[in-house]
């Protein structure tokens, strides 16, 4: 079938090259494989797979109750359809050190190019909400070391996320991030930074690539690509953006159907059938069966 053309090894090597080129790489969140395909068509650098979105998709809050299998499965489904490197959120690792190690193995097997693990306690919370609790730095160091040792591919990017800014302040959170790098983290994810100055301080203190989380309606101002690049960041994620966009439009569209009694006023808000088919590479499936794709765009409604 018309799946990815690159092996996970190639995708991880692509990610390693991106992280070494000194530029900022944009990884929008994909809420499903189809969305990942669109991200690739738009020529983004990579795909992000958000824990908050995996949970929300199952109609669950982001508090660590979606299962490891659900995460691995979503990761695998997305990696299967894109040549872009994909990185996935693994929350707190689905347990302590041993479980974190196993989670990394499973994500490598599923084709991911990297994952991020955080220093919150279980049950965790969204990093941009108040009242977070974190584990001792030594516990997180064990998680990171075990996760790093579990890597089969040295290009698999292990990202250590620290939620300590909100709990212990900037300085202590920087000490933690340094300890996580010493324990084997390949990249750092400073969660919920409150100003550009804080992003600057992190860049000055940390020698490995850094990720910026530009999630909407959170603690951080939404910085532009050029601002993040000049701050020296290597990757930016827009974790929940595509889901928020889609659900916003679904909400308005359902209201319109209730109000108008039909969809005629909302057709221009929809992805057209022809664009969906193009994204699915429908026509190319004709090489298996000449009668599969017989769709033509006409002005008259389809019967
Ligand atoms: C990045 C994040 O971990 C996610 O799961 O996408 C979330 C995003 C969000 O809830 O807006 C987080 O920042 O905790
Ligand atoms: Mg998350």
From TrEMBL:
Organism: Ahrensia kielensis
Pathway(s) served: Organic acid metabolism; propanoate degradation
Cofactor: Mg(2+)
EC number(s) stated in the UniProt entry for this protein: 4.1.3.30
Upper lineage: Bacteria, Pseudomonadati, Pseudomonadota, Alphaproteobacteria, Hyphomicrobiales
Annotated GO MF terms: methylisocitrate lyase activity
InterPro entries named among the record's database cross-references: ICL/PEPM (IPR039556), Isocitrate_lyase_ph_CS (IPR018523), PrpB (IPR012695), Pyrv/PenolPyrv_kinase-like_dom (IPR015813), Pyrv_kinase-like_dom_sf (IPR040442)
Protein name: Methylisocitrate lyase
Taxonomy, superkingdom: Bacteria
Reaction catalysed by this enzyme: (2S,3R)-3-hydroxybutane-1,2,3-tricarboxylate = pyruvate + succinate
Function according to Swiss-Prot or TrEMBL: Catalyzes the thermodynamically favored C-C bond cleavage of (2R,3S)-2-methylisocitrate to yield pyruvate and succinate.
Pfam family, one: PEP_mutase
Keyword annotations: Lyase, Magnesium, Metal-binding
Family: Belongs to the isocitrate lyase/PEP mutase superfamily. Methylisocitrate lyase family.
